[in-house]
C-alpha cells in the first residue's frame, strides 16, 4: 500500500474518508457538495439496486420516471413540506437562453410532481393501489457535506404509493420498512432498529415516519432508510380523489419511502477496519480474488494451476484473478484487503505441489488451507460463514453499546465529552420540550420509538421531566 | 378498446401519440417539455438498459456517476461544444436560499465534468484506457418536443473513454457503433445504416461522429445512437496529459457515445400498427399473455387448465395471465394487441376438451392451434420467428424505400410535397454549401456517409454542383 489509512482510533472521520479515497469508491468533484461515485463505489451501489429492485418487484411494485424539475408552486402546496425543504432547494431560473416565467426547483424528493400526475391517473377504486417506485438523483443544498453520507446530489429510490384506505397505506408503509430491515440485515449484514420517529424527526409532510437505524463503529446512529405514512396530505394538496365501491368520492391515502447512496457510507462505517474495506459477501462486487504467486520461471505452471483452481469455484461465485505480479505478494495481499474482497485465494508453488490452496478471510484474517477437491464446498460455506460472522459481530457491538438508562445522570454521562456514546434506552414523556432539552444538553436525539415501546412505558417515569412516561425511546448521537 | 387509435394513413404523428397515451407508455407532465415515463414504458426502457449494460460490461466497461450540475465555465472551455449547447442549457442560479456566485448548468451531456475528473485520475499510461459509462438523466431545452423522441429531459447512457493513442480511441468508437447496431438489429429488430456524419451534423466537440440511422414507417430517418471520436479536444480543454512508456507527456485521446429513451420512440414507430404496439419478443416485457375464456359455471375448470398451460411454457418465457373476464373476449384480445405482447394464448372450453390452445401472433394476426404437448417448443420457435419476421419486414420496407438517385430531379421528386420520401443514395462533392442547398430545397439532410462510400464515389459526379463526387451519401428527412 502506497498510502496509509488513518487508524480508527486516531480519527474515525479521517479513517472513513481515507478508505473511500484510497479504495477509489468516490471522489470530490468541482461542484460544491456533489461527489463523483467512482466505478468501485458504483459497483456496490449497483448490487444494492438490483437486490432492492427485485424485492420491490416481488411485492408488486413497478418502476417509472418523473421529471427532475418541479414547478416551485407545487412545493408550496403542502405547508410542512415547503417548510422542511425550502431552505435546501436548488432553483433553475433560466432555460434555453431565457429567464423562465416560473422557476423550477431540482427535485429534493418527488411527492409533489408525482401526486400532480396521480390526479390524472386516479379516478376510481379500480385504479388503486398504485405501487410505483423511481430510481433517481435528487438534490438538497447542504452546508456540510461528507462523501456518501450527506451530499448535495445523491442517488436513491423513492417509492410513492396510492391506496383506497388508511389501513392499506399503513400496511404498505410497514411492508417496506420490513423490506429495508431484511435488506440491511441479510445483505448488508447491518443489524437495524426499527420503529417510529418522534414528531420532530419525521419527514416534512408525513403523518408518521418509520426508520431503520444502524449503529456505526463510532457508536453513533445512522438513519439508513425511511418509510412514511403520508395520510391524505398530498391527496389534499393536489386534490386527488377517487370514487369508491359505493360511488362516494374520497381522498386517496399515501405512502412514500426511500433509501439512498448513503447506504454505501453505512456499509463502510459498519464493518471496515484499519486495513480498509470489509464487504459482506452478498453485496461484494467480487466475493473471491485468486492471487497466483509466481516468478518468470514458473509463471506458466502456476497460471495453469490457477485456471484449474478457478474452474473449481461454484459458477455463482463472483470472482477475479490478479495476475499482475509487478508488486510483492505482501503488497498485493494488502491491496485486495483494502478493497474488501471477502475471500482471498493464495496460490503458490507449494500449494500447487500439494494440490491445495490457502483461503484467507478478509473479516478475521484467518488462513485456511484447503485441498483442491474440497474447494468449491469450502468457499461456498465460507462465504456464508463470513456473511453471518460480520452480522453477528455488528450485532454484538450494538448490544455491547446499548444502555438502559434509569436516570438522566446515567444518560448525560454516556454523551459527555469522554463518554462512551452508543444507544440509550430511556423513558420519555412524549413532550417535544423534553426532547429538545435532551438534545441541547447532550446532542443525542430520539432515533426511534421501537414497536411495542408504549406498553413498555407503562408505569415508568421520564427521568428528565419527572412526568409519567408515554414512550421508551432509543436515543443516540447521529450522522 | 374504449378509445380509438388514429390510423397511420390518417395522421402518422397522431397515431404515434395515441399509441403512447393509450398503452400508457408515457404522459405529458406539468413541466414544459418534460414527460413522465409510465410503468409500461419504463419496463421497455429497463429491458433496453439491462441488455446494453451487459453488452458494455462484456466489452470491459464499468459504470460510474458524475454530478448533475456543471460549472458554467466548464462548458465554455471547448469552443464548438459551447456553441452547440449554449442555446439549450437549463441554468441553476440559486441554491439553499442564496444566489450562487457562479451559476451551474444542468448537464446536457457530461464530457466537461468527466474530463475535469479524468485530469485528477490520469497521470500515466498505466491509468489508461479508462472505459467508463454512466446511466443518467440529461437536459436540453427544446422548443418543440415530442414524447420519447425529443424531450427537455431524457434518460440515456453516456460512455466516456480515455486512451493513450488515436488508433485505440477510434477503435473504441467503432466497437461501440457495432454494439449499437447489434442491439438495434438483434434486440429491437430495427435494421440500421451505419457510417460517419457530415461535418454539419456531427457532435459539438467531436472530430468524427458515427451514427446508427433507422427508417421509420413514414419513411423518415431517425438517428438512434451516436458514437464520437473526440480526438484530443477535451484533453486540451481540461489539460489532461499522461506520461507514455517513453516518459514523454502526451494529451489523452477520447471517445464518447450514447443512446437514450428516444429508442423507445424508435421502437414504436418502426413496428407498430393501427391496432397498437408491436414489440419484438427479445425486448417485450411480456412475451406471452394467456387469456382464459370462461363463465362462472366453468371458471374453475378453465383456470385449472390455464395453470396447466402456463406450466408448459419454458421458464425463460416472460408471461402473464389475464383472468379478468369483466369484458368480452374480443375486447380483451384488442387490449392485449394494443399493448404489443408478441404471442397471445387463447384458452377456451373447446381448447380444454381437445387438450390444445390457440396461439395468435401479434405481428401477423395468424392463429395457430397447438396441442398442449407441443406448446413449449412451438412457443419458443414462434418467438424466434416473430423476432426475425419483424426485422425482415422492416428491412424489406427500408429496401423498398431506398432510392439510388443519379440526377437531382430524381432526388427532389422524392422529397416533393407528395413525394414518397425514404432514403436517397446520391453522390456528394463534400462541399457544405451543396449540402446546405439540398437541405434548403428539400429539407433532406445527409444521414450517414456509409463505410466504403468514398471508393464508391470515384468517377462519379455530384448531380447538384456538377463537381466530382467525394462521397456517396445517404439522405433523408429526419426526426
Ligand atoms: Zn450500560
Ligand atoms: Zn427508386
UniProtKB/TrEMBL annotation, chains A, B:
Entries under PROSITE patterns matching the protein: AA_TRNA_LIGASE_II (PS50862)
Reactions it catalyzes: tRNA(Pro) + L-proline + ATP = L-prolyl-tRNA(Pro) + AMP + diphosphate
Keyword set, alphabetical order: Aminoacyl-tRNA synthetase, ATP-binding, Cytoplasm, Ligase, Nucleotide-binding, Protein biosynthesis
GO terms under biological process: prolyl-tRNA aminoacylation
Protein's cellular compartments: Cytoplasm
GO cellular component labels: aminoacyl-tRNA synthetase multienzyme complex; cytoplasm
Gene3D superfamilies: Anticodon-binding domain, Bira Bifunctional Protein, Domain 2, C-terminal domain of ProRS
Pfam annotation, one family: ProRS-C_1
Keyword Transferase: no
Domain Aminoacyl-transfer RNA synthetases class-II family profile residues, every copy: 33-280
Listed CDD domains: ProRS_anticodon_zinc (cd00862), ProRS_core_arch_euk (cd00778)
UniProt keyword ATP-binding present: yes
Molecular function as annotated in GO: ATP binding; proline-tRNA ligase activity
This enzyme's EC code(s): 6.1.1.15
Enzyme class name: ligase
The protein's assembly and partners: Homodimer.
Family to which this protein belongs: Belongs to the class-II aminoacyl-tRNA synthetase family. ProS type 3 subfamily.
Domain note: Consists of three domains: the N-terminal catalytic domain, the anticodon-binding domain and the C-terminal extension.
Function text: Catalyzes the attachment of proline to tRNA(Pro) in a two-step reaction: proline is first activated by ATP to form Pro-AMP and then transferred to the acceptor end of tRNA(Pro).
Protein name: Proline--tRNA ligase
Organism expressing this protein natively: Spirochaeta africana (strain ATCC 700263 / DSM 8902 / Z-7692)
